[in-house]
Amino acid sequence: MKKHNFSAGPSILPQEVFQKASEAILDFNGIGLSLLEISHRSKDFVAVMDEARAIVKRLMNLGDDYEVLYLQGGASLQFLMVPYNLLSVDGKAAYTNTGTWASGAIKEAKMIGNVDVVASSKESNYNYIPKDFTVGSEYDYFHCTSNNTIFGTQMKSFPKVDTLLVCDMSSDIFSRQLDFSQFDLIYAGAQKNMGPAGATLVVVKKSILGKTRRQIPTYLDYAVHIDKESMSNTPPVFAVYASYLTLKHLEENGGIAAAEAKNNAKAKLLYDEIDNNPNFQGVAAVEDRSFMNVTFTLTDESKQEAFDTAWKAAGISGLNGHRSVGGYRASIYNAMPIESVQVLVDVMKSI
Amino acid sequence: MKKHNFSAGPSILPQEVFQKASEAILDFNGIGLSLLEISHRSKDFVAVMDEARAIVKRLMNLGDDYEVLYLQGGASLQFLMVPYNLLSVDGKAAYTNTGTWASGAIKEAKMIGNVDVVASSKESNYNYIPKDFTVGSEYDYFHCTSNNTIFGTQMKSFPKVDTLLVCDMSSDIFSRQLDFSQFDLIYAGAQKNMGPAGATLVVVKKSILGKTRRQIPTYLDYAVHIDKESMSNTPPVFAVYASYLTLKHLEENGGIAAAEAKNNAKAKLLYDEIDNNPNFQGVAAVEDRSFMNVTFTLTDESKQEAFDTAWKAAGISGLNGHRSVGGYRASIYNAMPIESVQVLVDVMKSI
């Protein structure tokens, strides 16, 4: 039976990526060796790394003032690297607290320096995106999370701030057209729209670095990774290759514009059902609804068993909500076909 | 033509690992989904992580006082995590400087606290292992590198020190029988004997943690990863799975004892040729020769073109020495068959 994978991450990727990644493990580029056994400094892999970095800039329409890095440690290590690299010894940073991962970022930054939380939706279990705040030039940077995977909220626009704009885009990167040049630093764990777990993307405007008067440990220093072109130490070869395949697939299939159109259609299909079906209700504030992670609950808990049985029988997996929200979460990342969303909607109609 | 892959790392792994890893990318455990698209908290992957951790303890014959972690960032990030977790605010650490990576470890530790380099072979381009030193209880820990990939030296025994014994085993872990209980902390980038790039193994005696009076950033804190069973954030799923396959293969084929016997035979075959063939000479001091990375040079540089042509024609790859040593380096990790070493020896005899 066909599977419909609504997992929040690691998550669905294009089938073509699985096929090509699987082949490369047996024989990479026809060289008679596995991708897993070649030097990261071999010309075949250096070409992959170079192109993986170049595609990001093309997709984001960014110029030479930005650098692209593939690192390890996930967004969690970026929570630490961002303040190490951008928060000056006597400065302060502004953060919004829009969920579990934003809280994690705030916690790490506070270990490094001074942090003000300028807005938070914690008091309502993060079911909306706070918008009523300003950030002045007294801050070294402003940090936000574009999409909150657990709670199903998404920033539809980004505030104009009088400082650097830093964004954790782990769960909605490459899902919609944005003016990426408004950001000074973007980071993302790969394991949603851009690859399997094990690689972390950082896109950084080079001119913002080197200003904190801090001694930065080598692995945590963006400047080191820029200088070594993401080869300061052995990179996560397979994860970078699979990310390269994923981004190449995106580029060859209409880029972010085409992905956004598909994502809008999928989100509309599912949210319309949530709004029109009396058995369901959405969790997030309507204007802040995520187009990647759709959180919803049953209005009548007595229907839970019937619903759970029905979606499992339809081949759907990964639909259980996160424990801090409950209910259901349908993650409909770039690679999710609208046909799978229709299967879910049909199940919702059936109970 | 059959390839003979002498790459220093990422490096050769068992063919069975490539086969199974390739299959799992198309369909993992017969669940109808790719290994790359499932949640790291799914029961199928949690079972992999649990078993990957358990195999390490079985292979090393370690008890419940040790914890096994799979992290990211390579040995390079361990250079930072070790002092963050073990070097107390007013304490000092002892390091030996036996090569490029040992130097990297020393550099990071010095950013965190006080470090004494108690022995070094830098003055002779790291061609031997210094042995004439003691380490007293005034140190929080002693750090050494068991095998120096670039220079081809290996510690044949470990000093008795009056403090914690910490070892970077990246390039010879699981290659020989040791009393692993003599170590308090072992770490290794996976990309030699235990898997592809992208995962980092840490084996740590739990009782040594929590004594530095330092605030440790979350991702850098071993205690956090122990508490979350290596799932503090999304682990590098594929790299952990491939490491699990590699260690399972080792365990099912006689464990470390059988690997050691094979490695000894391979090393003897190659070093005997280096010593008996007047065209070649070894780089490392004889008593410190690595059984993983065999470094050698031509005695007559005019034969270089003939030798290079001959080994390439024989299907050999990855034989060029590191730029800081020159000459040649044959990396003969666990997965390297003795037949491939024989091919190299035959080429050496032929010129």
UniProtKB/TrEMBL annotation, chains A, B:
GO terms for cellular component: cytoplasm. Keywords: Amino-acid biosynthesis, Aminotransferase, Cytoplasm, Pyridoxal phosphate, Pyridoxine biosynthesis, Serine biosynthesis, Transferase. Pathway: Amino-acid biosynthesis; L-serine biosynthesis; L-serine from 3-phospho-D-glycerate: step 2/3; Cofactor biosynthesis; pyridoxine 5'-phosphate biosynthesis; pyridoxine 5'-phosphate from D-erythrose 4-phosphate: step 3/5. L-glutamate binds at residue 41. Gene3D superfamilies: Aspartate Aminotransferase, domain 1 (3.90.1150.10), Type I PLP-dependent aspartate aminotransferase-like (Major domain) (3.40.640.10). It is found in: Cytoplasm. Its main location: cytoplasm. The keyword Transferase applies. The modification N6-(pyridoxal phosphate)lysine is found at residue 192. One of its GO terms (molecular function) is O-phospho-L-serine:2-oxoglutarate aminotransferase activity. Binds 1 pyridoxal phosphate per subunit. It comes from the Bacteria. It holds the Pfam family Aminotran_5. It catalyses: O-phospho-L-serine + 2-oxoglutarate = 3-phosphooxypyruvate + L-glutamate; 4-(phosphooxy)-L-threonine + 2-oxoglutarate = (R)-3-hydroxy-2-oxo-4-phosphooxybutanoate + L-glutamate. InterPro entries: Aminotrans_V_dom (IPR000192), Aminotrans_V_PyrdxlP_BS (IPR020578), Pser_aminoTfrase (IPR022278), PyrdxlP-dep_Trfase (IPR015424), PyrdxlP-dep_Trfase_major (IPR015421), PyrdxlP-dep_Trfase_small (IPR015422). This is Phosphoserine aminotransferase. The gene is serC.
